[in-house]
């Protein structure tokens, strides 16, 4: 019965979201294919041949001795060219340049745009029902909260997972059809594995958004927090050293076949379990009278406050302060106070305002 209700309520939004997911991956693959063909034409043009012949050492810097123009062209045109036989010498200055940058998704929806879409999609599933009082209707059906939560998560999450997987597979198929096989350097199983890796990565982002949609209840600050979570994720990823950024390759619609590193796999599993656990706890303990609170369950305020303040401060210290000469400056101190001030305002401003009003009433 619940599945039928969910479908009747949101079938057009489900179809629209599925089309956006599949279309974003497909268009990105098409754009990458067009980009590849433009590069192919350039590397076989008279202009490039003239530049190369004038200064071949500049182009072959970092390549093994004996490498030729054909080797250079083939390397730069090959997707997934991880650890090629002729490429870098040990301890080369270019030893960090596996061809990740070439795999960047261009087109109508960039990687960051896709991340934000999955965050907001997960957030909207529970948040909209809270604000439209649809939860009251569901609870009036004499169905347990745990059953409502479980079936709702299964229904929407399964659609998101399948749509994402289909989008990845279609993107892989577009590349296999439009780019000659000798430049793909990928087997069929690797292609499927890359699609699963990418799907699991974006599914984790969706679960994080879903957890935010269950925990947060403020009409304005709730959606605004999704923007903050997005920038927080971008901020954290920008601070990672190269040795860790390669694990983020699964954010591409085609992974670079580092695949899911054990560290990344552990993080994704922990994030999904924690996100669903927090969402279940919040949904089970949310009072409909607390509809407008920023954090719907009071017991979650302190953990979320610590995550926002301490977590952001640690990443800020690691990524910014540790790369500057002086830590004990007023500028850095201001940044830390700003982080803690924003965290305090978001989490506790309503509780503090209630206490202030109570104090004013007693005084008056």
Describe the structure.
- Helices cover about 70% and strands about 0% of the residues.
- About 10% of the residues have low confidence.
- With about 375 residues, the protein is an all-alpha fold.
- It folds into two domains: about 270 residues, no CATH class; about 70 residues, no CATH class.
- It is built from 13 helices and no strands.
- The relative contact order is 0.10.
Please specify the SSE layout and strand pairing.
Layout: H1 2-43, H2 46-54, H3 56-59, H4 69-77, H5 111-131, H6 134-139, H7 145-178, H8 188-215, H9 221-239, H10 242-245, H11 262-285, H12 301-319, H13 330-363
List keywords for this structure.
single chain, 364 residues, mainly alpha, 2 domains, globular
Quick take:
The protein folds into 2 domains: 1-60 and 68-81 and 102-296, no CATH class; 299-364, no CATH class. 70% of the residues lie in helices and 0% in strands.
Radius of gyration: 25 Å
The structural class is: mainly alpha
pLDDT averaged over residues = 78
- Largest β sheet strand count, sense and barrel closure: none
Give the proportion of residues in helices: 55-70%
End-to-end separation in angstroms reads: 54 Å
Order of helices and strands: HHHHHHHHHHHHH
Number of strands: 0
Morphology: globular
Please give the domain count.
2
**SS summary, helix count:** 13
Strand content: under 5%
Spans of 5+ residues with little confidence (pLDDT < 50)?
A: 81-108
Keywords: Membrane, Transmembrane, Transmembrane helix
Organism: Enterococcus columbae DSM 7374 = ATCC 51263
Protein name: ABC transporter permease
InterPro entries: ABC-5_transporter (IPR053046)
